[in-house]
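Here is this case:
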Amino acid sequence: MCCSEYVVFLDFYARNIKPYVMGKRNAKPSLRAARTCVYNCNYHIVFSTKYRSKVLTQDIEEYLKNLVQEIAQEKGFEVFQVEVGEKDHVHIFASAHPKIAPSYIVKMIKGITARKILLKFPHIKKYLWKGHLWNPSYYIETIGSISEEAIRKYIENQKGK
């Protein structure tokens, strides 16, 4: 980027993006600012238990929700919503800095929660073959600001299922 392009970028940033980030305008409250970028990276993550075993009881669900929030805070990303659907799969609405890979988010959540849930609730191992809690695959999609509310409603509706 040459000097004149950089000046044009800074001018664009100062006029269009910085006021949103600094809280002066309310049109884009989901924008976040870091030292080198302004971003809005949101993800809808879904993963299921191994063999879709219905082992996520109410106690495990509450523990899982708290655990996911702790992991997010420790690893540097945000989790806005966690819901368990049909006692066999989990929906997560998360956001992270662009330097944090979505696969890293999933790896941390699935790995740490599996270990801690199986330690705290050892009785569920009899429903799982070889003691694996989560299916190794997962679904992930990026969420733009337009579809954000639709995804939030969809995840919220998973409570009743």
Remarks:
- The radius of gyration is 19 Å.
- Residues 3-21 form the longest helix (19 residues).
- The beta strands are 32-33, 38-39, 42-48, 78-85, 89-95, 139-143.
- The CA atoms of residues 79 and 87 lie 20 Å apart.
